[in-house]
Structure formats: structure tokens, C-alpha cells
Specification:
Bound molecules: coenzyme A
CATH superfamily: Gcn5-related N-acetyltransferase (GNAT)
CATH topology: Aminopeptidase
Helix content: 25-40%
Largest sheet: 7 strands, mixed
Number of strands: 7
Shape: globular
Number of domains: 1
GO molecular function, one term: diaminobutyrate acetyltransferase activity
CATH architecture: 3-Layer(aba) Sandwich
Family: Belongs to the acetyltransferase family. EctA subfamily.
Domain N-acetyltransferase: 18-170
Distance between the termini: 24 Å
Structural class: alpha+beta
Pathway: Amine and polyamine biosynthesis; ectoine biosynthesis; L-ectoine from L-aspartate 4-semialdehyde: step 2/3
EC number: 2.3.1.178
């Protein structure tokens, strides 16, 4: 499907004024900016954000308010477990926080992926990692699990000793089972 068609299909004006779409290459620079200014995310190369906009647009979303990028989520299906959606980064520009923008980004993405489409199986599990000091992100995913009636479990994954640069540990948050519902 052409990217433009897909974007039009994904458009969801919602109630808070944020339009949510799958990203295109034109969105990569703003994602990089929001990640840089987030105060919490690892800033990856600008190239990495462009790559997600090209190769993982289906499992990523961008929110815009009045034409301005307000937030994004980047995800991919794990190659060895394609019914599992890994959320790599999610961030909302400080000016738009506390307005459910990130909750809507997640709901929009998962709503599509829990319905089987083409050769890929329906997503049944969402995974992400969160450092122990990131209470906003913990609240976001706890709220998501509650809304979707799914269990949230945490297990160690990336230990501080795995990182070469003093990075904090990143435990794994696993949320499931996710099933299609008319509530989201
Ligand atoms: C985490 C982040 C994406 C949340 O975005 P947001 O759009 O403000 O979140 P929402 O408005 O959708 O809120 C979702 C839930 O989290 C809660 N929450 C949001 N920010 C919070 C905070 N700072 N402290 C405590 N709870 C918080 C909300 O109350 C809400 O809970 P509810 O649904 O039970 O009412 C945003 O704070 C951010 O960009 N932080 C920096 C980047 C980051 O840490 N990303 C996650 C790691 S990959």
C-alpha cells in the first residue's frame, strides 16, 4: 500500500485535536527533535528515526496538532515472535503532555495490530523496557494495560552491566493478552 494511502487510512482526529498517522520520511527530523528534547530518552542518530519512518511505518505513529509534531511512538514486530509488538520509543513534546496524546498513540497503533492483516499474525503482546526512575512511562503503560484489560508483568532484561556507558538497567514490561475490542 502506498504510504500516502496508508496515512490517509490511519488518520484519526480524536478529541484532543491531535491527528494520528503512520509516519513518512518527512516526519523523521521532528521525531529526532522530540526525542532530543524529551529529557528522558536515549537520543539515537537522525538516521535511525528515518529508518523507522521507512521500514517500520506500519508499527509507528506520529501525532500532530495544528500541523505541528506533538509526539511519536516507534515500534516493530519481533522477527522471531511476530505476534509481539516491541515499543522502542515513545515521547510527547513537553507542551502537549498530560493530554492523553501518548495513550492515544498506543491505542491507535495497537488497535490496528491486534487485527490480523495479510500474512502477519494478530499482535497479542506488547513489550517495552522502562528504567526504574521513569515514573511517567510506568504510569503510561500501566494505564494502557488497565484500559486493554491485559496483565502487566516485569522481568529483568537489559541489566546495567550489559551497557558499556553507565546506562541504567532497562527491565522488560510485558503486556497481554491483547484482544480486539470496540472500547479502544
Ligand atoms: C511518558 C510520556 C510519553 C507520557 O506522555 P503523555 O502524553 O503526557 O501521557 P498521557 O497524557 O497519555 O498519560 C498516560 C497516563 O500516564 C500518567 N502520567 C503521565 N505523565 C505522568 C507523570 N509525569 N507522572 C505520573 N503519571 C503520569 C497519566 O496520568 C495517565 O494516567 P491515566 O490514564 O491513569 O490517567 C511523556 O511524559 C514523555 O514524553 N516523557 C519523556 C520520554 C519518555 O520517558 N518516554 C518513555 C520511555 S521510552
Amino acid at each position: 500500500m502506498a504510504t500516502q494511502e496508508k496515512n490517509a487510512q490511519d488518520r484519526d482526529p480524536g478529541t484532543d485535536g491531535a491527528a494520528i498517522t503512520s509516519p513518512s520520511l518527512a516526519d523523521g527530523a521532528e521525531m529526532w527533535r522530540i526525542a532530543r528534547d524529551s529529557g528522558a530518552l536515549d537520543l539515537n542518530s537522525s538516521y535511525a528515526y528515518l529508518m523507522f519512518c521507512r521500514d517500520f511505518a506500519r508499527t509507528s505513529r506520529i501525532a500532530t496538532v495544528d500541523g505541528e509534531a506533538a509526539g511519536f511512538v516507534l515500534g516493530y514486530r519481533r522477527p522471531e515472535r511476530p505476534d509481539c509488538l516491541f515499543v522502542w520509543q515513545i515521547a510527547v513534546d513537553e507542551r502537549f503532555r498530560g493530554r492523553q496524546v501518548s495513550s492515544r498513540l498506543l491505542d491507535h497503533l495497537v488497535r490496528t495490530e491486534v487485527r490480523a492483516d495479510g500474512p502477519l499474525p494478530a499482535v497479542r503482546t506488547l513489550e517495552t523496557t522502562i528504567t526504574d526512575d521513569n515514573t511517567a512511562s510506568q504510569a503510561l503503560f500501566t494505564s494502557f494495560a488497565r484500559r486493554w484489560g491485559a496483565e502487566l508483568t516485569t522481568v529483568p532484561l537489559f541489566a546495567a552491566t550489559h551497557f558499556p556507558d553507565g546506562h541504567d538497567a532497562e527491565p522488560l514490561y510485558e503486556i497481554g493478552p491483547l484482544v480486539p475490542s470496540d472500547d479502544h
